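Our working data are protein records whose layout never changes between entries. The record below serves as our worked example for the rest of this section:
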Amino acid sequence: MNNLEKEESWKILSKEEHYKNERFSISKEKFVTPRKTEGVYYVLESNNGVKIVALDGDDVVMIEEYRYPVKKRILEIPGGGIESDLPEEAAKRELLEEVGASAKNWKLCGVIDVLPGLIRSTCHIFLAKDLTFSERILDDTEADSTVVRINKKEIYKMLDNGEIENSISASALLAVRKYIDL
């Protein structure tokens, strides 16, 4: 058994919630490690999410939008939060809302931890193919977003060159790479 397979026995001494809203909470957690040292973590616990690598023929369908926390427009794949639905249903909803598309073929390609040293949240990665387009259903924060289609070979060159700045989008593109004929 290697260290990644070994079950850790961190004991939680206390958990104090400092802030909570509909999207996330921040808690102060005191703990004892397996080596019997005490420590404190501030943990942001967020809704789990989905990201979708949507293929329209040879193009990856991306979203370009302004992201307030980093104060710039970035290129990313569509996605969003899992509400009370299942991950695949959330992925279908988000693709329809952000891109105005539905897909005939769906494949779950992985689940990743989102910034595990700080955030307790997972993201389900889907590959969506055989798209049909309709009207986009955007909320106020997405109103200035644009749909961008980039050839799959070009998007992987951009990824290899560090031009995809959104870490979850980059991880998702890597997770589906083996399922895409490049």
About this structure: The chain has a mean pLDDT of 92. The longest helix spans residues 87-99.
